[in-house]
DNA sequence: TAGAGCCTGGACAACGTTGTCAGATGCGCG
DNA sequence: CGCGCATCTGACAACGTTGTCCAGGCTCTA
């Protein structure tokens, strides 16, 4: 059979991207195209002898099924997309990993992309994933208008939002109890005698930031403490601004005696600032941070379970895929106050 | 034109996955199929008026190009794959993000998967990515035999290994100077008067672990210090084993006065153990860790630049794609010793 | 006004796979 | 020995897109 192997033997100058196809395998094995397909997919109705010949041809040619063609034919891609803010952020790593594990359990691959907190980039990414026909989409919103996803959802792309709710559309969302967690954290400080408590957080246009701020206000109000503007810093997006905000709160005639920080990045920066201060200032941070227990004092935090967020969202997504669309739901996961010392410091008035 | 919109208007019961195609758009806009393709791809040769009609139809139907079909036709997917150990590990987050940024700059998406340090899963993942016809592959090896990738590489899949070299095949690799970094770190301890220095690292079958161990031995030998078996713990894969290893080294008649740790996970565990000890033990760790500067004492580390590893690898990959295959290269990035206190403690003999 | 040349638009095949369906082969039984 | 049935195999169309190529209409010039 000199010419059944023609193509493989004469890869023209090893030209780029010339891969064997099922047709080539069929030719080499001396069987029909569909028989190869059957073998590759483990479908019944192939005699052991034929199967062996096909397997040998596959081996010899280094054939690998082209999933693009398969997807085109079958409709499903067995892959889901994840749009998050920044993979380098220690909060999103575990979340992404959890989504991946659930996907894997369902035989799907995860494609993820970082929006860098840019709504435009979020949309661009999400739509690129849809163009690749992911079966589902897990989105950590950067923007606040997700109507651009409506055609996709209508077309059957399962969609779940995590960490922050979708904007202007009705969709599944899984989030932490940001409001309650922040309220508890601030109440904890109040219970330890603080009254002048600072809040440093992200821009309130971000849902989580707004909710945590709301929790702060609620705790203060519950305790009958009027909040002064000078105690609050919103939109602290980079370390320099956080640093300045903290330093301002800690100076002046009536400095704050405790600070509540709105996310892990802010917390880390504030820890640095406090380490430089001679005074002891209490601190409770939203989000747990690694090694928080080894610092002096240990850092008291309101911890959310990033992995649980991811897992819950992914499971919800596959439920959508398995049983068709159901009414959108809002799932809220509890937070946990972990006391380690910094939140139990008394006011240093 | 009642029946040009037939399909869109009568989505049969909104059946799953029924999406408009270019054909539908063409029908609705009253133009030919190829004209729609031209508009979608921004190709020239369409009058403004026609283009407007097509755009309107696209908008109205919520059309989104099916990239699977596009890939099938064009051969390139504009996506690359990344196989790493665990996204939740703070070392890989920034690496992955760096790869993503380079990919984005080249208009490509990143698909990544975690091998969980399991060679079989690594292979499964890498081949799944190849079946999806990624243009290139960045692999952080878990296994030590990558011949399974030979057909893929021959077929034109650009491949770069990171952090550890490929096994049994000749391919591009980007790594840190693990040997030199470890040697420098240990030499640093020796320079501060230590002679009984412990080493706790991963299983030596992992290339980085073996290299760092080699660096440790070299530094000791350079200083004329014979290494005792009791000072070395390999295969410390989980916190319990690390803890036990550290405790053993620190007990007995002639305990080590300093420890060199082989990666960030080990370092963190050892820090915990040392925090419980009354004695002061010097410590230098491989890999930087967050907040290392705020601990008492600050943790001296041999830092590698995860982002630079990822960036370099991805750039190398796209060079392969742009200019065809070139001779495989081995790129080694320097490490940096960051002194913060723990590595400068004198021996507490 | 006719011819040449340009520009726009569309018909058609092909990419590699899978679902459908019908044909071929072999077997057992009457 | 012949028929029916079960089992195995392969031809063909279709998935949605893009590249090729040609047709038709337009403008411009001689």
Task: List the main descriptive attributes of the protein structure presented here.
homodimer, 349 residues, alpha/beta, 434 Repressor (Amino-terminal Domain), Rossmann fold, 3 domains, six-stranded parallel sheet, disordered N terminus, DNA-binding
Descriptive overview:
The structure is a homodimer of 349-residue chains. Chain A has three domains: 6-65, 434 Repressor (Amino-terminal Domain) (Orthogonal Bundle); 77-176 and 306-333, 3-Layer(aba) Sandwich (Rossmann fold); 178-305, Response regulator (Rossmann fold, 3-Layer(aba) Sandwich), CATH 3.40.50. Chain A contains 13 helices and twelve strands. Chain A has helices spanning 6-9, 22-29, 33-40, 48-61, 67-74, 92-105, 119-131, 150-154, 178-191, 207-222, 239-249, 264-276, 306-323, and strands spanning 79-84, 109-114, 136-139, 158-162, 172-176, 197-200, 232-233, 258-261, 282-286, 300-303, 330-333, 336-338. In chain A, the strands form two sheets. In chain A, strands 2-1-3-4-5-11 form a six-stranded parallel sheet, with helices on both faces. A six-stranded mixed sheet of chain A has the order 7-6-8-9-10-12, with helices on both faces. In chain A, α2 crosses α3 and α6 runs parallel beside α13 (306-323). The longest helix of chain A is centred in the last third of the chain and has 18 residues, at 306-323. Chain A is elongated. The relative contact order of chain A is 0.11. The structure holds a DNA duplex (30 and 30 nucleotides).
């Amino acid at each position: 059979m000199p010419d059944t192997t023609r193509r493989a033997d004469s890869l023209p100058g090893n030209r780029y991207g010339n891969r064997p196809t099922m047709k080539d395998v069929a030719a080499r094995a001396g069987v029909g195209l569909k028989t190869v397909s059957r073998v590759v997919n483990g479908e019944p109705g192939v005699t052991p002898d034929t199967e062996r010949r096909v397997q040998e041809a596959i081996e010899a040619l280094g054939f690998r099924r082209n999933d693009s063609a398969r997807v085109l034919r079958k409709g499903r891609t067995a892959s889901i997309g994840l749009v998050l803010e920044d993979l380098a952020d220690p909060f999103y790593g575990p979340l992404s990993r959890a989504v991946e594990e659930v996907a894997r359990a369902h035989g799907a691959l995860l494609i993820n992309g970082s929006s860098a907190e840019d709504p435009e980039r979020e949309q661009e990414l999400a739509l690129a994933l849809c163009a690749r026909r992911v079966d589902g989409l897990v989105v950590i919103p950067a923007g606040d208008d997700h109507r651009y996803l409506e055609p996709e959802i209508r077309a059957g792309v399962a969609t779940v939002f995590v960490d922050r709710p979708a904007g202007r559309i009705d969709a599944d969302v899984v989030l932490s109890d940001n409001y309650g967690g922040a309220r508890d954290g601030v109440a904890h400080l109040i219970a330890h005698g603080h009254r002048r408590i600072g809040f440093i957080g992200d821009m309130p246009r971000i849902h989580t930031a707004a909710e945590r701020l709301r929790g702060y206000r609620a705790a203060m109000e519950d305790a009958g403490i009027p909040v002064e503007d000078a105690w609050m810093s919103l939109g602290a997006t980079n370390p320099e601004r956080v640093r300045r905000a903290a330093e301002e709160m800690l100076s002046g005639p009536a400095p704050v005696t405790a600070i509540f920080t709105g996310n892990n990045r802010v917390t880390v920066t504030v820890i640095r600032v406090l380490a430089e201060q001679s005074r002891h200032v209490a601190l409770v941070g939203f989000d747990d941070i690694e090694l928080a227990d080894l610092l002096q004092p240990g850092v008291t935090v309101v911890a959310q379970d990033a992995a649980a967020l991811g897992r819950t969202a992914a499971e919800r997504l596959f439920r959508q895929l398995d049983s068709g669309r159901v009414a959108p739901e809002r799932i809220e996961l509890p937070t946990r106050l972990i006391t380690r010392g910094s939140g139990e410091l008394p006011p240093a008035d």
